[in-house]
Amino acid sequence: xxxxxxxxxxxxxxxxxxxxxxxxxxxxxxxxxxxxxxxxxxxxxxxxxxxxxxxxxxxxxxxxxxxxxxxxxxxxxxxxxxxxxxxxxxxxxxxxxxxxxxxxxxxxxxxxxxxxxxxxxxxxxxxxxxxxxxxxxxxxxxxxxxxxxxxxxxxxxxxxxxxxxxxxxxxxxxxxxxxxxxxxxxxxxxxxxxxxxxxxxxxxxxxxxxxxxxxxxxxxxxxxxxxxxxxxxxxxxxxxxxxxxxxxxxxxxxxxxxxxxxxxxxxxxxxxxxxxxxxxxxxxxxxxxxxxxxxxxxxxxxxxxxxxxxxxxxxxxxxxxxxxxxxxxxxxxxxxxxxxxxxxxxxxxxxxxxxxxxxxxxxxxxxxxxxxxxxxxxxxxxxxxxxxxxxxxxxxxxxxxxxxxxxxxxxxxxxxxxxxxxxxxxxxxxxxxx
Length: 434
Description:
Blueprint: E1 10-18, H1 30-40, E2 44-53, H2 64-77, E3 81-84, H3 90-100, E4 103-105, H4 107-118, H5 122-136, H6 163-198, E5 202-208, H7 214-222, E6 239-242, E7 251-255, H8 265-270, H9 272-279, E8 283-289, H10 295-308, E9 316-321, E10 341-343, H11 352-364, E11 367-374, H12 379-387, E12 391-396, E13 402-409, H13 410-416, E14 422-424, H14 427-433
Parallel strand pairs: 1-2, 1-3, 3-4, 5-7, 5-8, 8-9, 9-10
Antiparallel strand pairs: 6-7, 11-13, 11-14, 12-13
Helix pairs in contact: 1-4, 4-5, 5-6
């Protein structure tokens, strides 16, 4: 029994473990994660029921003995809600509501409800509504049982369409309308991405499991004040802002929706516009809550989703966040000597210099100082290098070429070498010029 002093509907949550499922594919503390989801939705967890089954039953998903136990808890607590940490079929959901005489939600419905209460932007609300309608369209059967049949005879002939068919048609129209509006928003985002690329801005996207600390890190990097909280799905709208850290130049950071295990397929489909921000990124920061005892499972879940979304080719840096709360002596990753991970505490602003160095190295390569020559007609390129603060010294050669000593990086030098009339002087000439 778990008493809480918070207002909200009292709920009984049910954890059902499948003994036939490989336990290596499950989170060791899925019950803890689900409890946080329930409390995040605003409900008061009055009791928890644990049960194991070989396979779910077709009528109630669980055995009758456990059904009686849940009913007793509902009556004792006057619970208004029973929430299953599993996905239920529409018939199982209806049968459970009749047997328990209270509202029943499954895992997908709970996550959709949380998304509906947290979405703030226009696009976010449309995406959530699309996911809800897609989920609802499979749960209309018997919803209007008193109108589902057409009857013959004098005075009993229907209009030719049942209420169920009417609902399906209306939902179908609404889904198509939302998809058109989302496509329009998607096209606008494509224009914005093109403008960013044209402005030579690199995009760094923050990804990771929900409640890993992505928004806290994002707020520091961009000097924004987006809502950040220690609860699942505090961020539901993808946001892109300009970098404000002096050690990083010409970067844009994107804060994205957190991942979760068993993410409803309706959400994956509806949030394609948000996921497109990841596909256009030049670098991904995989933020991991290293203080979480289940961080290995959650890290693997995020990597699996990134692979499924076709993002495996984008460079990625693993950011081990909340390292101030972790017992680092127990972590195997320290001995791996992996250069693609850093250890930080975004809340306490610790270890961020190593993150900045890793981002610069991954995006731009090692810093270099070189003497270069430009044809006189490349005055626009000379002006650009000065505007970037790259020029250290300048001279004019006997043949009239502009010679500049610039401080740049490997990747930028490779791009500049493609410009006709731009040449990197060899080491001998460089030494003579110096």
